[in-house]
Amino acid sequence: SFLLPTVKTANEISDCHSFPVGKHQSLKFMPKLIGLIFLSTNNHIIRFYFGFAANQTAQMLLTITLISVLIWPVNIHMWVKRVLFKVAAFAPFQVTVRDALNQAMDEELERDERVFLLGEEVAQYDGAYKVSRGLWKKYGDKRIIDTPISEMGFAGIAVGAAMAGLRPICEFMTFNFSMQAIDQVINSAAKTYYMSAGLQPVPIVFRGPNGASAGVAAQHSQCFAAWYAHCPGLKVVSPWNSEDCRGLLKSAIRDDNPVVFLENELMYGVPFEMSDESQSKDFVIPIGKAKIERAGSHVTLVSHSRYVGHCLDAAAVLAKEGVECEVINLRTIRPMDVESIETSVMKTNHLLTVEGGWPQFGVGAEICARIMEGPAFNYLDAPVTRVTGVDIPMPYAKILEDNSVPQVKDIIFSVKKMLNV
After folding, report:
1. Which of 151, 171, 293, 355 is catalytic?
2. For the segment 249-271, what is each residue's pLDDT rounded down to a tens digit?
C-alpha cells in the first residue's frame, strides 16, 4: 500500500478552517484496508479473466490499478474542498438582510433577558418571512411568543410589558396590519413618556415589512414612513442593507423610546457584504445619523430603504455620462439627519429625493421644506425635485405595479432634467 495515492483527511485539509470532519476522518485508513482485501482475492480475478495464476508482481500491479481507480474520486473530492477553502478565505463576507435581522435579535435576546419577541407565527413557524428562524428553539415559548391574529391585542400586551420594564419586539406581518393597532402605537406607546413627565419610558420596537412588495395589491403595499414620522414620541428607522439592519435593530432594541422599524419584504433575501466591524456583537449604528453611500459633486440623491439601491444604480449609469451623484442613505426618518443633507447640498447645489411612498405630505416633501427653511436654500441652483410612488392605490398587475413605484430610469431622467443635460 506504500505505492498508493496519498489520501489526506479533512483535518489535514482544513487546518485553520472550521470544517466539520465527520466520516472523512477515516479515509486515511482506506488504502491499507482496500489493499489487504484485493491482495487476498486478485489471484482469482486474474485467473478468471486471463486463464493463468498470477505471480506476486502481477497481483501488486492489479491491486494498485484497482485501488487508484477507487481512490481517485476521493482525491478529487478533497482537492475541490481545498480549493474552495482557499477561495472562501479571500471572498467578501456576505449576509442577507434576513440573516442580519435574525442575528441582531438573537444577540440582543442573549444579551438582555428582558428582551422578547411576539407576533403572528414568529415562533414555531420561524416567522412569515423566516426572520425569526431558530429563535423559538433556542429561547422557548416564554421569549418567542406566537399570538392570535389580533394586532390591537398583542400590540397592547407588548406596550404593557414595556411599561413594566421588559423590552418587547412586536412584529407586524406587514405594517399595513399596524393600522389595526394604531391606537396602541400612537396613544399608548408614543405619548406615554411625555404624559408621565419623563417617569414612564416605553422601550418597545415595532418591526416588520413596509412598503411595496410583489403582487400583493393595494392593501398590503403602503409605505408608512411618513405616517409614523409625523408623530412626536416615536423614532422611525428605515434600513437599506444588511449592515443597516443589524446595527440599527440592535440600537432600536436598546433604546428607551418606542421605535418603528420599517423593513422591506423585497430586501429580505438580498445579500450584502459586511465588514468585520459590523459582525461584532457590540456593533450598533446610532439612530438619527445618515450615511453617504457614494460621494459626488453634481447632485445629491437622498433616499431610504430599497430605493437607496436604486439611487446607487442610477448614479453608476450617470457617472458614465460625466454626472457625479452623491447618494445619502437616510437610515432614520425621525429624527432626520438634516445636517448631512444640507452639507451635501451646499457642495452639489442640487437635490433630488427618492421614496416609494405617495408624494403628498411624504418624506421627500419634509426634506424639501427643511432645505427651503435652512441655510442650504441659498446654495441651490435649481428647485428640489421629488421622485415618489404614484398617487394611487397600488395596482395588482405587475406592469402597473412597476410603473407605480420609482425605477432607476425615473431617477436618471429626473437628474438629467434638473441638470439640463
Report:
1. 151
2. 999 999 999 999 999 999 999 99
